[in-house]
Structures are given as structure tokens and as C-alpha cells.
Amino acid sequence: MKATTFRIAALLVPVTLMQVFLMPNLSILHVSPDALAVLVGFTAISAGRNTSMLTGFIGGMLMGILTGQMGLLMLAGTIGGFMAALFQIPEECHATQSLKTRRFFLASTLCSFTSSTIMTAGLNPLALSPAYRIAVLGGIGAILTLLLAIAARVLFMKKSFAD
Amino acid sequence: MKKFFGFFFRNNSWLLLIALSAISLGFIKMEQENVVQRLNNAGTGFRAAIASKIASYSYLIGLKNENDRLLETNIALIGRILSTENAIRNEADRTRILSQKAESLKSFTLARVVDRQFSSRENMLLIDGGRSRGIRTDMTVMTPRGLVGRVVAVSEHYAKVMPLIHIDFRASVVSSESGTMGVLAWKGGREDMATVDHVPISSSLKTGEEMLTTNFSTFAVPGLPVGRVVSIKQGALFSTVTIRLAVDFASLNHVVVVSLNRDPEKLRLLEGKIESGTGR
């Protein structure tokens, strides 16, 4: 547990920098994948609800320092972490690798959609309608985040979800 | 006592959620205050520095110098054109500008766009000029083609610009031929189009007319091109005027920041700080 928490803490800064500098280049319809949501989704599965909320909170704070809107990003990260933990796997439950993988994808996607909904509720620089912002932008963001989570699972997390 | 601690132990996730949310809401509330603003400015500087480094890899040194030299020349020419156009409109201005021409040209600062965000979360430009080069919040940002936006946050070496294509941006504009006035606003959608509100249906505004900034504005220099009228739809009292913006935000590399030219007395009057009758 401690090793996982340490690994998550070490990943937090690089993932935040990636979200700010790299992800905008992958955007579709002005929406980019949420790398932080993938990290929070992973945290929710492997370290539990409290750690995932804290990861979202601190990740939101770091992003806020770089981009502004710190409070809103912190709130979005916290609630995103809370929602992602709905897919948490209890420690005593010996889940299979495929179940853990499925839950990781669901947690990342739900975290992205939740935080995106909170962000769009608080910010609207492009003057888009609320329904469009939540359904289309939130939906596209969630799909892009799911694709990013799949890519992360295939490329970097082969041993993370061992049975 | 055991029950009391037991309650916290059982509900620790919910309590943590409430605590973190409360801290976040506190930060949202404090966002306007100095501490968070300073932190944001430092973050803006850091982000812009990295973005600037990334951008500079794709920027050829020789071309950069030549480009900068041409842009400097361009700025000087824009300064002269703007000064002259304003002077023609107003005889008193002309006398003043001719006498202070050298001084007015000094107030233009060239800056390079180091980062640009146009997303559902953020819509802003970062430029590589900050407090050290005399840039302050609310200064006008422009290009040789026309108005770009206004400075909203400044760090030591960088500044954040709210572009004209932002939902919260407003500027007073006037047409070059008919003299019709209105308020420029961007209401989403295409980034090359904006609307002009509060244009009465009785106005003689025609399509193709150029819209310029007025001298009513508290931040923009007057006579700066904003765009050209492409359509006019008449409503009950006011017309909905659509303009094609003069600046192409998709290919914005360099901008010019213009010093504030505010009349403190006018600002005090607008803010209601002058008492009636006393003239203070």
C-alpha cells in the first residue's frame, strides 16, 4: 500500500505537467484527454477513496497554480476522486486482473466526466450552452480519457493489476 | 467519547470529502484576493517560461531577429498611422499628438505569444512581456491588423491576455463611416466573428464598414481596427450586427502592448468616487 501511495505521489507532478503542456495538443473540439483523471482512477482502484480524493485535490491545486482557477480545479479533482472510488476494489477481495482493468477504465472515465461537469458548471469562456457543455464536452472528454487510460494500461501498467 | 471517535472513523471518507470541498470553496472565494493572485501569477510565469522554451526550439534565430526588426518598424508605423488618423478626426488631438509624437511611439511594447489556450476550460494568450518591460494589467494588446485583447494578469516576465474572443470581453466600438457606436461582444462559436450590441435600428450602418475602438474605452487606444460589418439583422429596438474580426487569432505570433492612457479623473468619475458639486 505504501509503495503504491509513494508511486502515485511521485507521478502527480509529471502527470500535471503533461496535462498542462502535452494534452492540449491532443484536443478534439477544444476538449483534451484528462491525464489527471487517469491517475486518480488508478489511485481509486489501488489505494482507496481517501487517497484518490487527496490525489484529485492536490492534482487540481498543482494545475490551478499553472493555469488559474485553483479552487474550482481542486473541487473538481476532489469530487472526481470521490466518484472514481465508487469502483474501488476492497483489499480483502481477490479480484481478477480483468475486473481490476475494467474498474480502472470506469473509474478514470467517471472521474473525467465528473470533474469536467464541475469545471463546465463553473467556467464557460467559449459561451456554450449548459447541455452542450455537459453532454458533448463532458462526453468527448470522458471518451478521450478512456482512450488515454487504455493506452496507459497497455504501455505502462502491465504489472500493476496482477491477480 | 468512544462513540464520538467511532463516528469519525466510520465516516472518514465523507468527512474528508467535506473538508477538501470546503477548502476548495474557500480557495474559489479567495481567488480574487492577493495571495492566490500572486500564486497564479507565479504559476503563469513558470508555465509561460516552459512554453517559451518549447516554442523557441521551432524558432530559427536568424529569422527571429529579422522578424523582430521588421515588427519594430511595423510598430513605429502603426503608431504614426493611429496618431495621424485620430488627429484627422479631432483637431485638438492633432495638435497634441504632433507635439508629443516621439513620446507616444515609446508607449508600444513588442511581445511574442508563447502559449495559447482556446478550450472549454480556458481561453487566453500568454505573452513574453511582463512587469519588467512595463506591462501592467488592463493594457491594450494589438497587432498591425487590429485589436487583440487586454492584459488581465502580469508576472515579472510574462502576461496573460484575455482575447477579444472571450465571453467576458467587452469594448466600445464606432464605425468608420457612419459613426455608429456599439458595444463589441463575442458570444461563442466561430473565432473570426463577433457581434456589436446596442446599435439602434435607426442607425445608418452598412455592411462593409470598418469598426474601430472609441475613446470612451477605459483601456483601448482609440481608432484601432476591430473588424468589418458582414451582416445587420434588425430587431425590435436594436440591430444585431455581426462583424468579421480584423485579427486572425489562429495565426497570432507577435502582439504589441500599448501603454495605458487613462485619465484618472475620468476613472474616478466612472467609479463614483467624485462627489457631486465638489469636483473632488
From TrEMBL, chain A:
<feature type="transmembrane region" description="Helical">
    <location>
        <begin position="104"/>
        <end position="128"/>
    </location>
</feature>
<keyword id="KW-1133">Transmembrane helix</keyword>
<protein>
    <submittedName>
        <fullName>Rod shape-determining protein MreD</fullName>
    </submittedName>
</protein>
<feature type="transmembrane region" description="Helical">
    <location>
        <begin position="134"/>
        <end position="156"/>
    </location>
</feature>
<keyword id="KW-0472">Membrane</keyword>
<keyword id="KW-0812">Transmembrane</keyword>
<feature type="transmembrane region" description="Helical">
    <location>
        <begin position="61"/>
        <end position="83"/>
    </location>
</feature>
UniProtKB/TrEMBL annotation, chain B:
<dbReference type="InterPro" id="IPR007221">
    <property type="entry name" value="MreC"/>
</dbReference>
<feature type="domain" description="Rod shape-determining protein MreC beta-barrel core">
    <location>
        <begin position="113"/>
        <end position="258"/>
    </location>
</feature>
<dbReference type="InterPro" id="IPR042175">
    <property type="entry name" value="Cell/Rod_MreC_2"/>
</dbReference>
<keyword id="KW-0133">Cell shape</keyword>
<protein>
    <recommendedName>
        <fullName>Cell shape-determining protein MreC</fullName>
    </recommendedName>
</protein>
<dbReference type="GO" id="GO:0008360">
    <property type="term" value="P:regulation of cell shape"/>
</dbReference>
<dbReference type="GO" id="GO:0005886">
    <property type="term" value="C:plasma membrane"/>
</dbReference>
<dbReference type="Pfam" id="PF04085">
    <property type="entry name" value="MreC"/>
</dbReference>
<comment type="similarity">
    <text>Belongs to the MreC family.</text>
</comment>
<dbReference type="InterPro" id="IPR055342">
    <property type="entry name" value="MreC_beta-barrel_core"/>
</dbReference>
<dbReference type="InterPro" id="IPR042177">
    <property type="entry name" value="Cell/Rod_1"/>
</dbReference>
